[in-house]
Amino acid sequence: MVEKREIGSSGIEVAPLALGGNVFGWTADEATSFTLMDAFREAGGTMIDTADVYSAWVPGHSGGESERVIGQWLARSGAREEMVIATKVGFMAGLQPDTIREGCDKSLERLGIETIDLYYMHKDDESVPLDESLGVYDELVKAGRIRAIGLSNFTAPRIAEAMEVADRCGYARPQALQPWYNLVERERYEDELAAAAQAAGLSVFPYYGLANGFLTGKYRSKDDLDQSPRGLRNVAYLEGRGQDVLAAMDAIAADTGAPLAAIALAWLMRAPTITAPIASATSLAQLSELTAALTLDLTDEQVASLDAASG
Ligand SMILES: NC(=O)c1ccc[n+]([C@@H]2O[C@H](COP(=O)([O-])OP(=O)(O)OC[C@H]3O[C@@H](n4cnc5c(N)ncnc54)[C@H](OP(=O)(O)O)[C@@H]3O)[C@@H](O)[C@H]2O)c1
Asked: Which end of the chain is flanked by fewer CB atoms within 10 Å, N or C?
């Protein structure tokens, strides 16, 4: 039985690993996506992360493909009551009130559900005053269209401002933050966001938990980069600290038999301010290496060696 953690003070609880949905309809076709979600649920996973914009970067797609696949899976699996569904709005269209209202309606329709459990602002939109965007989110909470509010890709000062606005206006408070954070991108989160999230009482769900696949150990040199359409995103990690991190993970893998992907995610799960890392898989073999993190207890020495190699 996987121990659950609460999202902020929302009363919603999740297992400490979220399945990333940006691959559904991109690098995982529909049938593969269904088997991945089945296996994730079977392993004790309870949260799926998606966005209205997934996978608009694929030629011929316009966004909504991932939500549609998740909606079909929820309908056929009967798993709605067990799963916490997080989605997002505003990555390309911004956060104008009507964009949020219409985005929410469309996401609910594609997902085939009555309520979005966690609804993120996908990225900050400084052209819209926070009292307007948060005001619409508050309306959506009151109308039962969403349960909890999340912020993704916000800076520390804007997190503090969002909390201040919510409190001053009497709106539902944001409960979650989704930042970019992993073993080879520590400063992105640790420099300012960790303290801001803690001060605001936000649960943190880091994305790119596997650094686009680098932290699985499959990219060791430039010759390995053609293994995936996202291989080239890993080029920057191949030198310096990236190699040190892989060496530290290799040593732990040799001692424990755990796959590198599980070690990278278990390190995130143990980080003091983290609720659940988000990671995706494109095959069942990959997925089993992610869910292995749910039962991998790193020792203090192992965590210290990863901290030292990545610091
Ligand atoms: N808020 C935001 O702005 C934002 C931005 C990005 C992502 N996200 C969310 O975070 C989630 C996670 O990010 P991500 O999926 O882009 O990246 P990620 O989790 O860092 O990398 C996952 C990719 O690594 C490869 N992989 C996974 N397990 C593996 C294994 N055991 N062995 C070898 N390769 C393995 C797979 O790609 P290949 O098979 O193609 O190599 C997989 O799709 C997304 O799905 C999305 O929900 C949010």
From this structure: N
Q: Write out the two tokens for 275.
A: 């609720």
107-144 per-position pLDDT tens digit: 999 999 999 999 999 999 999 999 999 999 999 999 99
Integer CA distances (angstroms), 46 to 4, 162, 290, in order: 9, 28, 14
CA of 79 to the centre of ligand 1 (A): 23
Specify the pLDDT at position 2. 81
The share of the chain scoring above pLDDT 70, in percent, equals 100
Rounded distance from Cα 70 to ligand 1 centre (Å): 16
Helices (H), the chain: 30-42, 65-77, 97-111, 130-142, 156-169, 187-190, 193-200, 241-256, 260-270, 284-291, 300-310
For 75-106, write each residue's pLDDT tens digit: 999 999 999 999 999 999 999 999 999 999 99
Q: What residue segments make up the domains of the chain, in order of their start?
A: 5-211+272-282
Packing angle of the helix pair 284-291, 30-42 (nearest 10 deg): 30
The closest-lying atom of ligand 1 relative to the alpha carbon of residue 120 is 1
pTM of this structure: 0.97
Classify domain 5-211+272-282 by CATH number: 3.20.20.100
Residue of 117, 144, 155, 149 lying closest to 133 (CA atoms): 149
CA angle 105, 109, 115 (to 5 degrees): 70
Q: How far apart are CA 213 and CA 211, in angstroms?
A: 5
Alpha helices in 184-299 (DSSP H): 187-190, 193-200, 241-256, 260-270, 284-291
Q: Whose CA is nearest to atom 8 of ligand 1?
A: 207
How many H helices and E strands in the chain? 11, 10
Structural contact between residues 189 and 156, judged by C-beta atoms closer than 8 angstroms = no
